[in-house]
Amino acid sequence: MTKYVGAIDQGTTSSRFIVFDRKGTIISVAQKEHKQIYPQPGWVEHDAEEILRSTNDVIEEALKKGGLTPADLQAVGITNQRETTVLWDRNTGKPLYNALVWQDTRVDQMVAELTKDGGQDRLRAKTGLPLASYFSGLKLRWLLDNVPGAREKADNGDALFGNIDTWLLWNMTGGPNGGLHYTDVSNASRTQLMNLVTLGWDREILRLFDIPAAVLPEIRSSSEVYGDAQGVLAGVPIAGILGDQQAALVGQACFSPGEAKNTYGTGCFMLMHTGTNIVPSTAGLLTTVAYKFGNHGARYALEGSVAITGALVQWLRDNLGIIKTSSEIETLAASVEDNGGVYFVPAFSGLYAPHWKESARGVIAGLTRYANKGHFARAALEATAFQVREVLDAMEKDSSIAINELRTDGGMVVNELLMQFQADILHVPVVRPVMTETTALGAAYAAGLATGYWQDTNDLVANWGVDKTWQPLMEAEKRATMFAYWNKAVTRSFDWVS
Fold first, then answer.
1. 418 and 310 in contact (C-beta within 8 Å)?
2. In which band, very low, low, confident or very high, does the pLDDT at 26 lie, cut at 50, 70 and 90?
3. 114, 232, 277, 484 from 367: Cα distances, Å
4. Is the pLDDT of residue 113 over 80?
5. Which of 48, 86, 272, 321 is the least buried, fewest Cβ under 10 Å from its Cβ?
């Protein structure tokens, strides 16, 4: 009987379930969006129960579409939006509050207070991360401090914390009736509570953040059999967990130091594999765990995180009504020859790598009466490419490794105008693989490696193939001029919020 591997891909805006065969080809897929909740400026929430329901729905739909049953699956992996923070009641399984999304900035004041004593990088040596509102640890602290009864439940062992991977795993393996409270090293490394060397929760940081250890999940490898699913996947081993960007690194078969990928989604996330070396960043990047397969040692990565890229296109669609569907952005941007001098810095929730400016806010610079919606569309796409350029420059500086090509994936890679401009502004070839669903594929790979579906990473490298490569065409002088104007616009966004 032919077997397959499934992947739950729980993202910022939607949940998907994809079934892959041994070649990494999609057999069946289903997707469902979920609500974005904005209670006040800077606050971003999700309904964790809605996410669980939609995940179960897409699993059922994808199996039905493919004429499959759970028995056809050898294993299932989970990949998830990272840093999004859930706190729930161990006994009832009910969330104590909405999930705080990675983009949420409500802990800005906590960040500022902690930064006063020791600076923004005081925890970087242990965690690889600067103090920022981005990570899960301070979001958890906010929930404990602000949700009535939450801290008491946590102290008594009646509350459980997890990123979305942990929330899904716990519910899918029994919930209140013996659900597994685990996370993997890649997700744990995004809480700012895990020590990169020991791969365990750091007691000093837990004391600093005032977080009881009893609330935390057990940290496991990214590829092992955690347990069998119940419910819609009854009997199928759940055998892989990777944060979404680490999953994309695995899906892109970046297993050698110096190999890099960039995912274009709600935000942009570039990761460079650094092998067993924990490379500290002096250029505003994050040092993170890439993955840990079974009993093998952990592999690390440098990461540049950009908060708003695809989300800017959604903003033009939903908030301004300039386009009706996201796919229209390319046609509108192509209706003008250039950006008309318009530069768009989408610092809606501050700036992430390499600036880490919590107080920055979005600006549109260079406006004249000449500017029209086509220039806005073009400037929005170019903003993505400029932010990626900033990250790539920082990555080369930190690693002392020249990036000779950039492997791309995510929803925006179908936009050929963006991909060409990206190659132009980087002066590096941009490569789109045959399989662009690399995040889900990476989770499937982790689960398949744990259960012998794939023997080793050589099988995964053999599956990777090129669909299209964009070569840089822009003249050096124009590239330098445009990037200089971009940097000028970025400085205008700094310190907007006092």
1. no
2. very high
3. 38, 53, 46, 17
4. yes
5. 321
